[in-house]
């Protein structure tokens, strides 16, 4: 049944009302009823098919799930036991002169005595998912974030621990904070997808951080010291003489914490060289002299 269209089975469209669904089922159930078609296996199969379709479409909750997730998604959530739970044949056939419980026993349980085999089964609650937006620093250093969500029609507020070093699109599982289970089943879980905002200064590469710093041509030639930002505050570093544009200077242990560990990645300062767009006459003369000298 997982690939069949319940509406099509009953000759209906999704716009059909509850009364139209009931009327269509009564008509087809009478046509294929085992009491009218003794020994007819094809009619028996059709009776099962239309009964299953009606059991779903006549139940507002099951119908909503079927409409939302489609046939395949619905059957991942509902077994045949779930589909026929609380389905009353007698309500349909009581004024038509046909049996009800005996039909259910013969057709759906193979003639077993003592009731149906569709026993109540514990059903796990639905999993919920939502996004949580954090800053670059919050993701790097960790902390707590308050989230609000609707659970079984009630608004809940929850304090979530953001582990240090968490990456963009990583997921956190909050056990038991999904939808409530049925028939004593456990609740589902809440899955949080972490969305890390871009930072104007830092760029993350795995658990490393990259910072761009521009220096003057003279500083690149002669060497210098510059101040660079880190997650732990500004730090002065030496730039060696003759450094080439694009070179990265490594600051070990100043990067992103490794998830679940005390160690950290590194921070890399990527050096670029400023090229002046305008020069004074004196500067042009000096640059000319350097060019003559082969620099």
**Assembly form of the protein:** single chain
- SS elements, strand count: 11
Could you name the ranges where pLDDT drops below 50 across 5 or more consecutive residues? 111-120
Query: How much helical structure, as a percent, in the residues?
Result: 25-40%
Shape designation: elongated
Main sheet characteristics: 4 strands, mixed
- Please give the radius of gyration in angstroms: 35 Å
Figure out the total of helices.
Answer: 10
With strands numbered from the N-terminus, the spatial order across the biggest sheet is 6-7-11-10
Alpha-beta classification? alpha+beta
Give the termini separation: 80 Å
Secondary-structure element series: HHHHHHHEHEEEEEEHEEEEH
On the 0 to 100 scale, the average pLDDT is: 85
Query: Strand percentage, roughly?
Result: 15-25%
């Amino acid at each position: 049944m997982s690939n069949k269209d319940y509406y099509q089975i009953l000759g209906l469209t999704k716009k059909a009302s509850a009364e139209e669904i009931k009327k269509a089922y009564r008509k087809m159930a009478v046509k294929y009823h085992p009491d009218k078609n003794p020994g007819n296996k094809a009619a028996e199969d059709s009776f099962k098919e239309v009964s299953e379709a009606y059991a779903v479409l006549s139940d507002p909750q099951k119908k909503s799930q079927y409409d939302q997730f489609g046939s395949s998604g619905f059957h991942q959530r509902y077994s045949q036991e779930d589909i026929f739970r609380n389905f009353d044949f007698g309500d349909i056939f009581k004024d038509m002169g046909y049996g009800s419980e005996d039909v259910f026993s013969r057709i759906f349980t193979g003639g077993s005595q003592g009731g149906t085999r569709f026993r109540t089964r514990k059903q796990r609650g639905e999993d919920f998912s939502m996004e949580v937006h954090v800053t670059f620093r919050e993701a790097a250093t960790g902390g707590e974030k308050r989230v609000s969500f609707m659970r079984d029609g009630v608004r809940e507020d929850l304090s979530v621990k953001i582990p240090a070093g968490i990456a963009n699109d990583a997921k956190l599982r909050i056990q038991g904070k999904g939808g409530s289970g049925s028939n004593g089943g456990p609740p589902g879980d809440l899955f949080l997808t972490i969305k890390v905002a871009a930072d104007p200064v830092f760029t993350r590469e795995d658990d490393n951080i990259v910072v761009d710093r521009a220096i003057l041509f003279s500083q690149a030639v002669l060497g210098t010291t510059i101040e660079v930002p880190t997650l732990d505050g500004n730090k002065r570093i030496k730039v060696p003489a003759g450094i080439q544009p694009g070179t990265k200077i490594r600051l070990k242990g100043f990067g992103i914490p490794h998830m679940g560990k005390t160690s950290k990645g590194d921070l890399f300062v990527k050096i670029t060289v400023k090229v002046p767009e305008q020069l004074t006459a004196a500067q042009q003369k000096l640059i000319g002299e350097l060019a003559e000298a082969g620099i």
